[in-house]
Each structure stands twice: as C-alpha cells, then as structure tokens.
Design goal:
The complex is a heterodimer of chains A (278) and B (242). Chain A is mainly alpha-helical. Helices cover 78% and strands 0% of the residues of chain A. The relative contact order of chain B is 0.19. The longest helix of chain B has 16 residues. The termini of chain B are far apart. Classes of the chains: A mainly alpha (278), B alpha/beta (242).
Chain lengths: 278, 242
C-alpha cells in the first residue's frame, strides 16, 4: 500500500510537480479563506480569466509566462477598477464586461496561427512540465503572499468582520480590500505555470470553503485550508499518475472533492452560521 | 477634557449635516435623537474623522471608540466572543507582535464586566443579539477611550441585555467617560444627561426635560412622530428601509 502511494513520486518529474503544487497550495489555501470572507470569489475567478491575453502575448513573443501573467493581471486589475467605477454599468456588470472582453481578446489572440500550440497549457497549466526554476519562482511568490497575509492578518480581520467600526480600530477597509486583490493577483501568477489560469481558482476557493465549513475559528480555518489545498495537490497528482489523466485537472477535482466531503459532516457539528434570536 | 463641537457641517459633495454645536463635560451620557437619515451616523463619522468637515471644529480628548449596530457585523465570521473583544487592542499592537498578555487579561476582564465571561469561547454569530451588542461594547471598553460613540445599542436587544447595558452606561459615566448614544427611543433619551436632536441640522441641544418638548420632537421627526393621548409621551416611529 505504501509503495502504491509513494512509487509515483520516485521520479524527478513527479517530485518537481509535487513541490510546485505544495508551495502553491500553502499560499492558495489561506488566501482563499480571506477571499471567501471578503466575498471576493467572483474577483478571484475574474482575475485569473482576465490574465489570458497577457499569457498569449507572452507565448507569441516567446517571453516567460510569468512575465505575461504579471502584465495580464495588471491590465485586468486596471480594467476591473475602471469598469467597476462606471456608474452606468454598476459594479458586477462592469467587471463582467471587462473580464469577458479580456478573455475574448485572449482567445482571439490564441487562435492566431503564430501562437505555439500551448493554449491548453495556458488555460490548464502543465504541472508535470515545471522546471526547478519554475518551482523556485512559485515558491518565492507564494512565500511573499503567506508573509503578507501573516503581517496583515489583524487588519484584514477587522475590515472583513466589522467594516463600519474598522477605521476606529485601526484599519481602512478599502485599503485592505485592494491589498487582498493584489495578493490574489500575485498568487494567481505564482500558480499559473502549474495549474493554468482556469484551474487555479479551484485551489483557491474549494479548500477554503471546506475549511470554513469545518473550523470554528479563523486561525484553524487558515491552517486547515492550507493543509486541504496541499492534500488536494497530492491526491490529484496520485490520481493523475494512477489513472493517466491530466495533472492540473485532477488537482482541481480533488480540491472540489474535499469540499464536497466537508459537506458530509453533520450539520449540527458544523460551525453555526445563524445567530440565536434574542 | 470635554467634547466640544462648534458649528459643524460635514459631507462629501454636499452638507449632510449642518449647524451642530454642543459641549459635553466628562461623565456625561448624551442621546443623539433623530429619524432615519437624520444625521446620527453621519455625526458619528464626523467625530471619528471619517467625514470631511466642510465647516466648524471638533475637539476631542482622544480618538473615540465606536460601537456599530450589531447587524452591521458579519455573523458568519469565524471568531469567538473573546476574539472580537481582543480587536479593541489591535490598534496599539504592531503587526509582527502578539497581542500583549495585559490586553488579553483585560479582554477577559471586560467580558466578565459585561456579564459574558462564560461565553468567551462561543462563536460570535451564535450569540443572541443582546449578547453580541455587549461583546461589541466590551471591545470598545478595551480600546480604553474616554469617549464612546454607540449607534443604536439598545434597538432589537432583549430586556435582560438592555437592563445590563443601561447599568453599564451608568458605570461608564461615573468613570468620567462621555457617551454619545444614537437612539430612536425618546423615553430612553429622557433618562440621560443631555440630548442632541438632529434632522439634517441640529434642531436642539440641552438637558432632556428642557429640550424634549413636543415642538422640538415634531421638528425632529416630522410625520414620523406619534404623540400619545395626553401629550405626555411621544414615540418616534422607525421606518425600515427595504
């Protein structure tokens, strides 16, 4: 049994994939908890989709994907900020229009005959193709995200829990919302090489949703989310090896599977979401 | 040191409140009375420095602590009652340090003071409305400010909690703190030391028995005021926005 579990990770290919998915998971997990607590799941989905044009342009230019992802995220963030402020559209409609336009532009560019046949890699990543340098880059970015989350923990909590009183307690909610979106962008860039810009959302949202279902307090939810994201990475790679399926997709499905499993916990044992009437 | 507001007018693009002026000595409970949209919360935001002053001055002995309406907090947030009280110490704790032991001890003592020592580990969202309100007041007490602004702390609160909260107000007054309490309840306001009546501008300020006349209440609430037969009691009708 132990051999069945460990054998797949004996080669350097799977070892690098394992290292990549774990370092990314350790950032995606806790970040996802904050994304859910700030009700920013839509922004997470949007930022990852909207970076597609940057990735395709990088592929066309032969530039590193990391560079393209960074450029794509910056353009996406600016487009979301501008569209979201247009009162004729309203927040969500403006963001949806901006994201659809950017994703459409990315798809249009990707269908150009000059683009290397790597669109699938951009959308869904290539965990088994990561190099040692990719792992180091992802590790550095993920470490930055985790460190920033640790330092900002109390201000993020104040702003999300009690927006009205947060300024009197020492936190400016608008500032910390922006900071969270910036960290989301960095984390997406860190994960895009291995998981692609579509599947990374699963590793951010699903383990966090499971952890919030299971953990009664914030520190426990943050730690559990990191653990579940890493577990999804390990289970996904194992499934990929044993069932001969795409690694990134298997990791995403494993994350969603863990979330579904968290729902099987009896409702009476889950943290209470509704207050008692006085 | 007292709270002094002189000829205050504030708002982002236009004056949302105007002509507000009052002095409150240490050890005063002041009701802030007015209809929905009358400027109670706006006045608090001006005192907290979150609203640009277009005219006038505000003089405070220290940054006020603020207790929001309990329904403005997130009930699904994974925090215990003690975690929420500890937030009162976040402003003086560097990001890279743990909350000081003295503050953690003070947070527990404050929870005891509001009668919720045995609920310290309960999830905040699982407490009753009155208990949540007391936790938010405990958080403000941990901030240890001489001025506390409370936004409708007694609305929707069970009778036991209301009694406890009002008793606590008395203790805080005796400690020399200034409490500004936004309320819709005219009869509640009559029990406190001063009252400010607002309806976009200041209608009146002074001791309740001199200030809360039918004329002042009518100008403050307009059609939202019901004067009971005999004219001795007036009730402000709270219109909820849907």
């Amino acid at each position: 049994m132990l051999g069945w579990l460990l054998d797949p990770f004996s080669g350097p290919l799977m070892q690098r994939a394992l290292a990549e998915v774990i370092v990314v998971a350790l950032a995606c997990g806790p970040l996802g908890v904050w994304v859910l607590l700030y009700r920013q799941s839509y922004a997470a989905e949007s930022i990852s989709h909207a970076m597609l044009p940057g990735l395709v342009v990088a592929a066309l230019a032969g530039a590193p994907l990391l560079l393209g992802a960074t450029g794509g995220v910056l353009v996406a963030a600016a487009a979301i900020a501008l569209a979201g402020r247009d009162e004729r559209l309203g927040g969500d409609v403006g963001v949806a229009v901006a994201i659809s336009a950017l994703f459409g532009l990315g798809a249009l560019l990707a269908l150009s005959p000059d683009v290397p046949a790597r669109l699938g890699e951009l959308l869904f990543g290539d965990l088994l193709g990561v190099t040692g340098g990719d792992v180091a880059q992802a590790g550095a970015l993920a470490a930055g995200v985790v460190a920033a989350l640790a330092l900002a923990h109390r201000r993020l909590a104040l702003s999300a829990f009690d927006r009205a009183a947060a300024p009197s307690l020492g936190a400016r909610p608008a500032r910390w919302e922006l900071a969270l979106l910036a960290l989301l962008a960095v984390c997406t860039v860190a994960a895009v090489r291995g998981l692609g810009n579509l599947l990374v959302v699963a590793l951010i949202i699903a383990p966090a949703a499971a952890a919030l279902n299971l953990a009664p307090r914030l520190p426990a939810a943050l730690a559990l989310s990191a653990l579940l994201a890493a577990l999804a990475g390990v289970l996904g790679l194992l499934a990929s090896y044993r069932l001969n399926i795409a690694a990134g997709a298997a990791v995403a499905l494993a994350a969603v599977g863990l979330f579904l499993a968290s729902l099987m916990r009896p409702a009476t044992a889950r943290p209470r979401r509704r207050p008692v009437r006085s | 040191m007292s709270v002094r507001v002189h000829d205050l007018a504030g708002g982002y693009t236009a004056e949302v409140i105007t002509g507000v002026a009052f002095d409150l000595e240490p050890g005063t409970i002041c009701a802030v009375l007015g209809p929905n949209g009358g400027g109670k919360t706006t006045l608090f935001r001006a005192l907290l420095g979150e609203l640009p002053l277009r005219r006038g001055t505000v003089s405070l002995p220290a940054r006020p602590a603020y207790v929001p309406q309990t329904d403005r907090t997130r009930l699904d947030f994974p925090v215990s009652a003690l975690d929420v009280v500890l937030m009162g110490a976040y402003g003086r704790t560097p990001a890279w340090r743990r909350v000081a032991r003295a503050d953690r001890d003070a947070a527990r003592a404050t929870l005891e003071r509001v009668g919720l020592g045995d609920r310290a580990r309960r999830r905040f969202g699982a407490l009753s409305g009155g208990q949540r309100q007391r936790v938010l007041i405990a958080r403000a007490l941990l901030q240890d400010s001489p001025v506390i602004l409370l936004d409708e702390p007694l609305s929707g609160v069970d009778a036991a909690s209301a009694t406890r909260i009002e008793a606590l107000f008395g203790e805080l007054r005796d400690e020399g703190r200034v409490l500004l309490v936004a309320t819709h309840d005219v009869e509640q306001a009559r029990r406190w030391d001063r009252v400010v009546c607002l309806h976009g501008r200041q209608i009146a300020f002074g001791p309740p028995d001199e200030t809360l006349t039918t004329d002042v209440l009518t100008r403050t609430y307009g059609g939202e005021l019901v004067v009971l037969p005999g004219g001795e009691r007036a009730i402000a009708v709270e219109h909820h926005r849907h």
